């Protein structure tokens, strides 16, 4: 009897195991049909199976080289976003690809539980190139920002002697520093913060570009403030440049109040604005610099925080890190990415072609003064600011769709701003093509769209939940 019961139990166990294996196979099964090839089908798959955390322009990247991109149907486009300034060196740069492939065949990951033979080379290269004692490697930009915030708090407690858990960080209205909780806690973007509270405490806001307001905050709370975090040019806010002399005044105020000046150069750095770092426009040396995006040449995520020993050594073994930060594959790519910037004169190229692009855009503005409010930027980080009322009911997004149909890939920031930030290797002919497309969209497509699109109330600006300003 006992034997029979045992046999029955074993049979049930076997059945359960078999059903689990079969179930697992069914769940993980690769679809048997051939992989989807058309743009339409790929976009449908993404809509059906991926979280809806982006609102992409309907164009599928399938292949890219330099400043050009092709979709699966073979249509060619010129890239004017560069993956939010991550592809400064141009798509699939041969030198970066060679470094990637050679390193991938040798060693990809050691973790920093051990040393590897590539990260130390990058560490020396980066610190010498940017003139800081040390680097802390991470992967994405947001992680770089988190690292800088933690470093600043640690320095604040250890060196500035801020009382326990009272450290404050000041950031700017309209800033963008990424999507992690720490980074959105600096933010003024209702979409980024609503529904995600409670945010990280210990934070004050100040208007970007307003020296007197910053001075007042430093005077009122300076003893508790460990850092001022800012973008030298606000990218996501719509390429907002501070007034001349701002960065110098910030440097001066931070030094006077013993507050760390932290420059988020994730979007503005690595030659994008016509200097290696945008802070160089005012010959200013921040205490902490955060790099990301183009440090990996659009190939692999690499971010880095640079600082001197006095600050960096506040972080001790075990207090911060990342499994992939400083991995040999990313290090090899970053070394090649920086070599390309130097060898191909991309700093000078960004400065020269950026001026050319703005000159062309200003000519278009003269033709459509009621539509284009302002053309602004530095190097190849530029924006066209459109007049909401004159554009209505058409949005900057609608214009970007039309630009795409004319072979130019750009993305709006906010409802009325189009950012233009091509890879720094773009040719003059490609720049001319883009200017012509922008002109044609405003001349030919816009009037038709305005006729066809139903009129809606133009949206009024929403006040920021955090600072109450209209942003
Ligand atoms: C200034 C700035 N900081 C941080 C980030 C976040 O970088 P990532 O998307 O790699 O996390 C971005 C991204 O756009 C950025 O522009």
Draw up the topology in text.
Layout: H1 2-28, H2 39-49, E1 63-65, E2 68-70, E3 76-79, H3 82-85, H4 94-104, H5 119-130, E4 134-138, H6 141-158, E5 168-172, H7 181-184, H8 190-193, E6 203-206, H9 211-221, E7 225-230, H10 246-256, E8 260-264, E9 288-291, E10 303-307, H11 309-312, H12 328-343, H13 346-367, E11 372-378, E12 381-386, H14 388-391, H15 396-405, E13 408-409, E14 411-413, E15 417-420, H16 428-452
Parallel strand pairs: 3-13, 5-6, 5-7, 7-8, 8-9
Antiparallel strand pairs: 1-2, 2-3, 4-10, 9-10, 11-12, 12-15, 14-15
Folded structure, characterized:
The structure is a single chain. With 471 residues, the chain is of the alpha/beta class. The protein has two domains: 94-343, Type I PLP-dependent aspartate aminotransferase-like (Major domain) (Aspartate Aminotransferase, domain 2, 3-Layer(aba) Sandwich); 346-452, Aspartate Aminotransferase, domain 1 (Alpha-Beta Complex), CATH 3.90.1150. The protein has 16 helices and 15 strands. It has helices at 2-28, 39-49, 82-85, 94-104, 119-130, 141-158, 181-184, 190-193, 211-221, 246-256, 309-312, 328-343, 346-367, 388-391, 396-405, 428-452; strands at residues 63-65, 68-70, 76-79, 134-138, 168-172, 203-206, 225-230, 260-264, 288-291, 303-307, 372-378, 381-386, 408-409, 411-413, 417-420. The strands form three sheets. A seven-stranded mixed beta sheet has the order 4-10-9-8-7-5-6, with helices on both faces. The protein has a four-stranded mixed beta sheet with strand order 1-2-3-13. A four-stranded antiparallel beta sheet has the order 11-12-15-14. It is globular. Keywords: Aminotransferase, Pyridoxal phosphate, Transferase. It catalyses: a 2-oxocarboxylate + L-ornithine = L-glutamate 5-semialdehyde + an L-alpha-amino acid. Its cofactor is pyridoxal 5'-phosphate. InterPro entries: Aminotrans_3 (IPR005814), Aminotrans_3_PPA_site (IPR049704), Class-III_PLP-dep_AT (IPR050103), Orn_aminotrans (IPR010164), PyrdxlP-dep_Trfase (IPR015424), PyrdxlP-dep_Trfase_major (IPR015421), PyrdxlP-dep_Trfase_small (IPR015422). One of its GO terms (molecular function) is ornithine aminotransferase activity.
């Amino acid at each position: 009897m006992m034997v029979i019961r045992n046999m029955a139990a074993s049979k049930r166990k076997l059945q359960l195991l078999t059903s689990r294996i079969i179930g697992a196979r069914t769940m993980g099964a690769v679809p048997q049909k051939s992989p989807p090839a058309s743009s339409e089908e790929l976009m449908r798959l993404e809509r059906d199976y991926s979280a809806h955390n982006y609102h992409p322009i309907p164009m599928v990247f399938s292949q890219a080289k330099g400043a050009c991109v092709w979709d699966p149907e073979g249509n060619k486009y010129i890239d004017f976003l560069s993956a939010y300034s991550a592809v400064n060196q141009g798509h699939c740069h041969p030198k970066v690809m060679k470094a990637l492939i050679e390193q991938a065949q040798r060693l990809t990951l050691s973790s920093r539980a051990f040393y590897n033979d590539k990260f130390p080379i990058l560490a020396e290269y980066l610190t010498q190139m940017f003139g800081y004692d040390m680097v802390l490697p991470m992967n994405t930009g947001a992680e770089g920002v988190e690292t800088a915030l933690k470093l600043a708090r640690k320095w604040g407690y250890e060196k500035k002697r801020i009382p326990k858990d009272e450290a404050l960080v000041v950031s700017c209205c309209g800033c963008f520093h990424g999507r992690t909780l720490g980074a959105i806690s600096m933010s003024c973007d209702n979409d980024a913060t609503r529904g995600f509270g409670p945010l990280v405490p210990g934070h004050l806001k100040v208007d970007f570009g307003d020296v007197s307001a910053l001075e007042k905050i430093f005077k009122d709370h300076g003893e508790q403030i460990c850092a001022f975090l800012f973008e030298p040019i606000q990218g996501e806010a719509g390429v907002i440049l501070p007034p001349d002399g701002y960065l110098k005044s910030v440097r001066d105020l931070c030094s006077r109040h013993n507050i760390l000046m932290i420059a988020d150069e994730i979007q503005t750095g690595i030659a994008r604005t016509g200097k290696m770092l945008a802070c160089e426009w005012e010959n200013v040396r921040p205490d902490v610099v955060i790099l990301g995006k183009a440090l990996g040449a659009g190939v692999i995520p690499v971010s880095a925080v640079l600082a001197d020993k006095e600050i960096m050594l506040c972080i001790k073994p075990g207090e911060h890190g990342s499994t992939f930060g400083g991995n040999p594959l990313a290090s090899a790519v970053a070394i090649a990415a920086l070599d390309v910037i130097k060898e191909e004169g991309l700093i000078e190229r960004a400065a020269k072609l950026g001026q050319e692009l703005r000159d062309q855009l200003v000519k278009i503005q003269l033709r459509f003064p009621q539509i284009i409010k302002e053309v602004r930027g530095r190097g190849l980080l530029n924006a066209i600011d459109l007049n909401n009322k004159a554009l209505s009911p058409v949005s900057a997004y609608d214009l970007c769709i039309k630009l795409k149909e004319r072979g130019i890939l750009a993305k709006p920031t906010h409802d009325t701003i189009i950012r233009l930030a091509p890879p720094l290797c773009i040719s003059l002919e490609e720049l001319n093509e883009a200017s012509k497309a922008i002109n044609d969209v405003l001349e030919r497509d816009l009037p038709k769209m305005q006729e066809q699109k139903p009129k809606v109330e133009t949206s009024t600006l929403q006040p920021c939940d955090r600072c109450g300003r209209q942003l």
